[in-house]
Amino acid sequence: MDNSKYLYSSIFLIGLFLLFIPQICSADIAVGFLSYNPPLLVIVIFMGVWIIEALTIKDKLVGTPQKALFTGLIINLFTALLGFLIALSVKNSVIEDVLSYGFIPSILIFLFVSIIIETMILYFYYRQEKWPKIIATGFLMNAKSYLFLLIFLILDAMVIGAFLVLIIVPYFFLKTFELLSAGKEISKSNRTKAIILITILSLIVCGFVFKGVMKGMEKSSFEKRGRAEEARIMADMNQIRSSAEVISDNEGSYVSFTCTYNDTMNTICNDVEKQAGMKPTIYTTFDKYCSHIKLLRGERWFCIDSRGNNYVTNVNPSTLGYCDGKTFICPPRAE
Known about the structure:
Layout: H1 4-26, H2 38-60, H3 65-90, H4 104-125, H5 131-157, H6 161-181, H7 188-251, H8 263-276, E1 281-284, E2 289-294, E3 301-305, E4 310-313
Antiparallel strand pairs: 1-2, 2-3, 3-4
Helix pairs in contact: 1-6, 1-7, 2-3, 2-5, 2-6, 3-4, 3-6, 4-5, 6-7, 7-8
């Protein structure tokens, strides 16, 4: 492909200025770019590892480039499934904790088993090759793949995941086309069409990845804001609980316990409304009270009552039999 280097450079530069720089300006540097959307992270890694191993097979074993590409796909489907099963077994993820010492045994097991599986698959498709050569190829494939994975995760954690996407995706499509078209006579017009198709596919996939990651960023940002706001709501509700006891001591009952009792209660209730979008619900009787407010994330409420309860619950406190104005007790605590 005579024009491939110009195509690759164009995609890289356009993506760099339109996507990479704005992402750097707005990113949370505590989290990597693709780490905001683990499924997309896995897909991009899969593309990179697939093409790396396919090129290794093509260079080291005798066979057609098309066969090498197909074998690389089969190998990575098996190893991806193996990695998924190991991740489930330890209830952890290499994405979440790349350098966890507790994860090292699982990584070593995965490395050993993946080499065995890849060697067996290589032997199945390349039976004419000798075992030492197949084993050496399997080791080389894994060495390159693990090096790529390590560099990829480190660079993504350094918030340059967008840069990686702009490199890996076009490279994957370019090399895939080269392997599929190897040994075939392709006219200049068809090469031009292929370049256009590769450009379109690269832009579509990069756009899909960036859109998915941005959604993950928005969700993460909302959850972080939600946690901070919920912490403030809970602090306010605990102040309300303290005020309820003060009011009971002063008045001899909880009957006067409302958001309008005094300036302090009014200020606290207004702050709850500012964070949660509504003032807390308060029910009182002579010797009992309860109050609750819906939290921002999911079906969760914070509830307080005259029994001293103050916690998060997954049951709506307004449910009959709890804090409904006739009874004055919080639902069970969320587990």
